[in-house]
Design a protein that fits this description.
By secondary structure, this protein is of the alpha/beta class. Helix content is 38%, strand content 16%. It starts with 9 loop residues before the first helix and ends with a helix.
């Protein structure tokens, strides 16, 4: 099977080939023909599966023979939950559409709105946006939806987690009723199902992997260590194993800043990315990490959405997340597109509850080790998850309804940080 066999035109096939891709991924094989036929699609897809190209490529083809969008109009709208993901999607639009005469733009909060308004003034065929900034632009008459033909809702589960459901409903009410709708989500939780029913018309469901499974290419391991010695252990691991690129997750923004300072004092080039950083700072840190200039990128959960790095070998949980589903999203940054990856967690005794919750969702125990010279004084208890250990220790997709109440409690702050 080739991209040509899927019905894509030569300019798109050539653009894909320029990126080194010869064979479509399973989700691309299923979604591209459906989108080209005009079906509404509801797809279960995780990051690293090629889902972005699965909707961008057929969208570009469908728009290539349309009349250009008029002033302040857009023909296709892609909604994403975070600035980083929106920027990543727009980058894909530019890469795959480089041989087509289509205009595109990306808009999100955290930067000045006037340049975005100027960009939209002449109209764009494809607009990638975060919900909050899109509504701001609409309220200022900078964007019109009367010519819209295609709507894509990417990472719908994260949209709901971040409290964007009301903004999404406001946007849906502004759009023409006759349009094609595509929705991508890591899970089909009850809330996602309800959202889908509100705007999808007889959707074709695409699920390229069995329910509750995830990347089998990610090896998981945890190191038991006292909380006060985590930074020292991380520095030791970086040097001992010669890590040239690792994404490290911190539970808090303050913790991320503190860890970067400690690593830099140890002559390890590190940078932080989180909601308190300006968009310019976040973009600079991410680009430096992707280009290999920054060795270690320390991120909070939300800020890491949209980080798409080929062959990222290491993900480290410096702190375990409070919500077990976030653990799944974290380790999904490595082992992408068939590559192997390793997810390491530095776990102290006071995190036993979080570990227990994560292992319950995974339905397996995470392999435990201790590093000589860093043995904990406060032993890490055995998590009573009541599940059999499985080998090898692989990631599994989170149960969609786990810790829903905790998610709701975080939504308001998340939305404020990423509007």
């Amino acid at each position: 099977m080739t991209f040509t066999h899927l019905g894509l035109a030569a300019p798109l096939v050539n653009a894909v080939s320029d990126q080194g891709y010869k064979t479509p991924s399973p989700i691309q094989t299923q979604t591209i023909p459906l989108v080209l036929r005009g079906n509404d699609v509801m797809a279960s897809a995780q990051t690293g599966t090629g889902k972005t190209a699965g909707f961008v490529l057929p969208m570009l083809q469908k728009l290539s023979d349309k009349a250009p969008a008029r002033s302040n109009q857009t023909l296709a709208l892609i909604l994403a939950p975070t600035r980083e993901l929106a920027a990543q999607i727009h980058h894909s639009v530019e890469l795959y559409g480089k041989y087509l005469k289509l205009r595109s733009a990306v808009v999100f909060g955290g930067v000045k709105i006037n340049p975005q308004m100027m960009k939209l003034r002449s109209g764009v065929e494809i607009l990638v946006a975060t919900p909050g900034r899109l509504l701001d632009l609409h309220q200022q008459n900078a964007v019109k939806f009367n010519a819209l033909e295609i709507l894509v809702l990417d990472e719908a589960d994260r949209m709901l987690d971040m409290g964007f459901v009301h903004d999404i409903k406001k946007i849906l009410a502004l759009l023409p009723k006759q349009r094609q709708n595509l929705m991508f989500s890591a899970t089909f939780a009850n809330e996602i199902q309800q959202l889908a029913k509100s705007f999808l018309h007889q959707p074709v469901e695409v699920n390229v992997t069995p329910k509750n499974t995830a990347a089998t290419s990610v090896e998981q391991k945890l190191y038991a260590v006292d909380k006060a010695r985590k930074a020292d252990l991380l520095s030791h691991l970086i040097r001992e194993h010669g890590w040239y690129q690792a994404l490290v997750f911190s539970r808090t923004k303050h913790g991320a800043n503190k860890l970067v300072k400690l690593l830099c004092q140890d002559n390890i080039h590190a940078a932080a990315i989180h909601g308190n950083k300006s968009q310019a700072q976040r973009t600079k840190a991410l680009e430096s990490f992707k280009n290999g200039k920054t060795q270690i990128l320390v991120a909070t959960d939300i800020a890491a959405r949209g980080i798409d790095i080929d062959q990222l070998p290491q993900v480290v949980n410096f702190d375990l997340p409070n919500i077990p589903e976030d653990y799944i999203h974290r380790i999904g940054r490595t082992g992408r597109a068939g590559a192997n990856g390793q997810a390491l967690s530095l776990v102290s005794a006071d995190e036993i509850k979080q570990l227990q919750d994560i292992e319950r969702v995974l339905k397996c125990k995470i392999k435990r080790e201790e590093i000589e010279g860093f043995e904990p004084q406060h032993a890490l208890p055995i998590a009573k998850t009541h599940v059999p250990a499985k080998k090898p220790f692989r990631a599994q997709k989170a149960s969609p309804n786990h810790f829903a109440d905790k998610r709701r409690g975080q939504r308001s702050q998340n939305k404020t940080n990423h509007r």
